[in-house]
Amino acid sequence: MKNRLQSALLALESLETAARQESPLHRTDARAKLLTTTVFLTTVLSVPLARLSEILLYALFPILTAAMGGMRYTSIFRKSLLVLPFVALIGIFNLFYDRTPAFRLGTLIVTEGWISFLSILLRGLLATQALLILVGSTGIHALCRGMQRLGMPRIFAVQLLFVYRYLHVLLDEACRMAQAREARSYGRRTFPLRVWGPLVSQLLIRTFERAEQIHRAMLARGFDGRIPDCTGSETPWRSQDTVFLATWSTALLLARLCWPVETLTRLLR
């Protein structure tokens, strides 16, 4: 248990470490990346489920942006697989309700339900990959700060930042309790169910206490409900940000409206 908690804590810290790297994507304004990702999510999620080949085209966005940010796409892809069971739970019922034949592969008949199921899986993976690249190239603080600068109500931006920050508090307290439990377990690896109730309640109480201490420390340092620029490296909107946003938005909208895969297939025929 302790090793799993430490792995989760290291995974959160790795996102912040990745956001401090230097690359063209990292130097792009957080607002431009946020708007571009919003356009990507809107277009890819609005593609009809039956057009699986068109959804495959959108895989170029996470691949190219990961290369632009100096990230390994294989690592992004592996992390996105964590959401696969949840996405599969959403689309698995299409296999039973939509049995209309779509095409035949030899003796195998592929139904519309399988196509829509694969489309849901692919869209879930691509959306997760885009969000991972956004957070990994921006950082959660700069991302929430960018949301606030775009006009998002500050209470939502602050709450989003606090949820992320308090994950560290929760995991840190859980690691402390797991270490104390192992020190008193005398080699036992499992505990009866009645032990986990007090364990979770103590974790909740200790987390609340830590949260109150953090809140008092923030008020003592002049926190007024807004996300400040703590890094001092906040730059104004530049022409490069406009080019990044305009180029990707145009490409994504054209891919959504013009059906390039279908058009290319017709030309080849």
3D structure, described in words:
This protein is mainly α and 269 residues long. Helix content is 74%, strand content 3%. It is built from 14 helices and 2 strands. It has helices at 2-19, 24-27, 30-46, 52-57, 60-68, 73-80, 84-91, 94-97, 112-138, 140-149, 154-183, 193-220, 239-258, 260-268, and strands at 101-105, 108-111. The protein has a two-stranded antiparallel ribbon with strand order 1-2. Strand 1 (101-105) and strand 2 form a beta hairpin. Helix 7 packs antiparallel against helix 9 and helix 9 packs across helix 10. The longest helix has 30 residues, at 154-183. The radius of gyration is 23 Å and the shape is globular. It starts with a helix and ends with a helix. The mean pLDDT is 84.
Using only C-alpha atoms, the radius of gyration works out to: 23 Å
Structural class: mainly alpha
Number of helices: 14
Helix coverage percent: over 70%
Mean pLDDT: 84
| Helix/strand order | HHHHHHHHEEHHHHHH
Major β-sheet strand ordering: 1-2
Beta-strand proportion: under 5%
Largest sheet: 2 strands, antiparallel
- Strand element count: 2
Distance between the termini: 57 Å
Shape: globular
The low-confidence runs, each spanning 5 or more residues with pLDDT under 50, are none
